[in-house]
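Worked example

This section walks through a single chain of length 413. The input is the sequence exactly as stored; nothing has been trimmed or padded.
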Amino acid sequence: MGVMRLIAALGLAVLLLRPLGAQSATPVPAIEGTAGDWKLMFQGIAFVQYDNQGGPRGASQVGSLNWAMLMATHALGDGQLQLRAMLSLDPLGVGGSGYPLLLQSGESYNGEPLHDRQHPHDAFMEIGVKYQRQLSKAIGLSLYAAPAGEPALGPVAFIMRPSAIDNPVAPIGHHWQDATHVSFGVLTAGVFTKRWTLDGSWFNGREPDDQRWNFDPIKLDSYSARLGFSPDAHWSLSASYGYLNSPEQSAPTVSEHRAVGSIAYGTAVGMEGQWSSTLIWGGNGRDHESLSSSVLGETELSIDARNSFIVRAEYVTKSAAELVLDSAPFATAAKRSFDVGELSLGYVREIKKWGRGTLGIGVLGTVNFVPVALQTAYGSTTPLGAMIFVRIRPRASGMAGMDMEHMNSSNAR
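Given that input, the structure is written out below as tokens.
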């Protein structure tokens, strides 16, 4: 599909374009402090948005998307113990069925698979503990356990990627790339060097259910492995594979194999700006079905302390069943696949800053691409979406944050 190839090429170009003479990696906005011998770090973001998705499958909504994470680190023996908690009020801010998002798929609500909506995150996104210890000057050991957490599968989740930190919208390839970032039951062990990480996880492959305020039953029925490489503070590469046992509530007898590769680059721009870009390929394979692929290219450019620009381009192959095309002429073709895509452009203007926070207002516009065969369902081959939002988060400027090298060696967070 010509349009889809164009979108994928744009994503690659976005990644490769970067300013010369960069000196430092891209920080993730964070607030750091201490409490006795504990080192504390807070990260978080909150949006209040008006979302309007056009066409017969679109909808409008006023809502709020948000998350907050606290990490507390303390020396333990010859290593370091880290307590991690990540919470969200998405279930309150956008309701049980989430927010409108054309071409999105994955998870269920009231027993029915969601489509053209992005599900809310669970209130308990992560409650976990991690231990790291240097075994020698060259190699270290990492152990992680969480009743709710993230296995070693996929890149940094979209909500925490520097290339998407001010973008409130989930990628439509989310369930091909980083959807396991909330799993109820995770055990991970890994080894790391200065530049390399190798992690393996045993975890719960089932997507969270629609009861968002509790812990789902904890299971360890799936597995994954991820290899990461950070040649310097600017670049981060990863490749991972996972077997997910019965990931979707709506298809309990179907399991899935997932492979993901990613490249991320971040750099400073001028005295107060920064530029972060990410390229991701993700593929899902199911029994007796061909591999379903996704490609994402995204970037966020902050030209100074006040003005940021957002770009995201995606291509995904989705089945009629995933898009819930259950009416004629698709009722007898549930396994038929369609190439779909989207291109989003956004802008954020900082309007208020104080000691440790910043308030911004932004706009995001999206052109979606569907084949002619889906024109009746979506009302157009290029249905449109738009969002305006107010955003509050910690300031990036002057904060220590986490560079890509450190994120790569901390189980993608």
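What to look for: Residues 224 and 242 are 4 Å apart (CA to CA).
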